Amino acid sequence: MLKAHYLHHVTVTVTDLDRAKDFYGRILGLQELPRRGVKGSDGAWYQIGPSQINLLRREKPEPDSARHFAVCVDSIQAARQALQAEGLEMTETTQVGNIDRFFFADPDGNRVEIVCPMGQG
Question: 79: domain CATH number?
Fold first, then answer.
């Protein structure tokens, strides 16, 4: 069984990054985080309690393409094994900043990301 601890982040696609940063930073008062290890995409990360909202800029609204939620686990290998045992297809494990991660889809095709701080399994 997969052992999830908390919702790590939600990704929201936006068409105007400056407007979105004003909304999430100034209006909602969220703290912007550095985006270490992220290449090839425009966006911003914000802390909200133990979780994050990750903004991803796109030319046109793409409500389904990048939307996903991420769950933090103790062990990336144990999570992969548990999901493989259920017959789920997953992406390869990659590293972004200090996080190991992979993606899979729920039965309705919604993207789910499993994350684990590097060095924790």
Answer: 3.10.180.10
Helix (H) or strand (E) run with residue 19 in it: helix 17-21
| 10, 55 contact by CB (below 8 A) | no
Q: Which domain holds residue 43?
A: 4-117
Our count of domains for the chain comes to 1
Alpha carbon 121 to chain centroid distance? Answer: 18
> Digits of tens for pLDDT over the chain (121 positions)?
888 888 999 888 888 899 999 988 998 889 999 887 777 678 999 998 899 989 888 887 665 666 788 889 889 999 999 999 999 999 999 988 888 999 988 876 778 899 987 666 6
Pairs from 101-109 (Cβ < 8 Å, separation ≥ 24): 101/70, 101/76, 102/76, 103/68
